[in-house]
Amino acid sequence: MTIREPDFSTRVLLAERRATTAGILRWNLERSGVVVERASNGEEALNRCARFRPHVVLLTWSLPALSGIEVCRRLRALPETGDVPVIMTGRAGDRYVVRALGAGADDYLVKAVQRR
Fold this sequence. Notes:
- By secondary structure, this protein is an alpha/beta fold.
- The protein has helices at residues 19-31, 42-52, 68-77, 94-102, and strands at 10-15, 34-39, 56-60, 86-90, 107-110.
- It is built from 4 helices and 5 strands, in the order βαβαβαβαβ.
- The termini are far apart.
């Protein structure tokens, strides 16, 4: 079995407001050879997406400034980001999944730990 070396060519925009959560996700992604750019609010996510040109966007629902839902809608509306895969994260529940997919997300992941 051959172990493949990371090539650091895949770019992920990580839009996550919580620094601890973002740090864990970033660490795991970078260990896999992914280049990660982080945004901590919705407006920053849109700006970084335009500059960074990610291959995929990992987007949390609950962002300040603009919600993840609105960021997803805006990304889908732009020709340069309309086809970039968006994976939204957030609370468990069908209504969240339906809204995320309705806004244009390609998939939805439930966050493992949630504050109540």
